[in-house]
Specification:
single chain, 66 residues, 4 strands, globular, binds zinc ion
Length: 66
């Protein structure tokens, strides 16, 4: 409830189509999404932030962040 999301760029909501890695804006739980964002299994939050590493269009070889 007391969230200060200052990143309008990477914030998505449950039900939105998305692909990549996202983190729950409430508890920070990370998920990998292929189609649509679910509700957070940990806190049932519905706000997701795009994982920073997922924004790299061409990740360098050998740098596989998990
Ligand atoms: Zn959560």
């Amino acid at each position: 409830m007391s969230i200060a999301v200052a990143a309008p760029n990477g914030t998505l909501r449950t039900g939105q189509a998305a692909r990549g890695e996202f983190r729950c804006a409430d508890c920070g739980y990370g998920v990998t999404i292929r189609r649509t964002l679910p509700a957070c299994p940990m806190c049932r939050g519905e706000d997701w932030e795009a994982w920073p590493t997922a924004r790299a269009s061409a990740p360098p070889l050998g740098l596989s962040v998990r």
